[in-house]
């Protein structure tokens, strides 16, 4: 679980299992009978008769003329307001890419600002079309929403002062009990630190800013944080901080849609995949570089490497 992603997958009175059981039951009756208008159909044709593709969220959004996206506004580099008050970040870039793919216009999108605990409820109540809000993929959440393919692999790591005593993770580990790691307060934080640095001592702080101040003042040797937060800080303060070079506790970030609509899910997945590997790669790569300082390698031409 991400340090900053602490909600417990808010529940819903509508589960995926309920939706699938209802749809499967209706399809099963038609397929078993194999009859439409007096004609006998094969199983695939009978199933097709039970599906009304026009009711997909994809066509609803196209007809409406704008996309409605659930996201946040306080967590750089994912979603936050810049100095002019404009909503920016990696999640915002992805939402605008979906808008462009729908309407050939990056700005036909309405953002619904919400807390992390509102992500699942806003989907199941149809308040938003999609959630693009650094959402960690878990089996529990996948019972309530449909996840897209991941667009980022998160994890924790240790950020160091560029001119500090320790330069890389192997040196931290070798120092053993002499190391003190600063981190934001969390009931699990000592356990998380010791998964990577078993002998280190841990000092907890009430905010990211106070943790960073402790690192700057050399009261701690390293700052445990999400990898994306570390990369953002290193982007903001070039040559002041460095990544120790090791990450652990991986988790995937993906967007989420309301369950039971494979047409909408497949379409969004197509947008994301071709951003990572195809026609919109330049846009996706520019966003990664801007927010994380990561230079993505250009996908190889020829046989699709994701199937190699």
What does this structure look like?
By secondary structure, the protein is an alpha/beta fold. 37% of the residues lie in helices and 23% in strands. It has eleven helices and 14 strands. The strands form three sheets. Strands 3, 7, 8, 9, 10, 11, 12, 13 and 14 form a nine-stranded mixed sheet that branches. Residues 6-41 and 43-49 have low confidence and may be disordered.
Quick structural gist:
The chain is an alpha/beta fold and 308 residues long.
Q: Give the overall shape, derived from the CA principal axes.
A: elongated
Q: What structural category do the secondary elements indicate?
A: alpha/beta
End-to-end distance, in Å?
30 Å
Strands, count: 14
Radius of gyration: 23 Å
Number of helical regions: 11
- Biggest β-sheet strands, sense, barrel: 9 strands, mixed
Secondary-structure element string: HEEHHEEEEHEHEEEHEHEHEHEHH
Give average pLDDT, whole number. Answer: 87
Please estimate the helix content: 25-40%
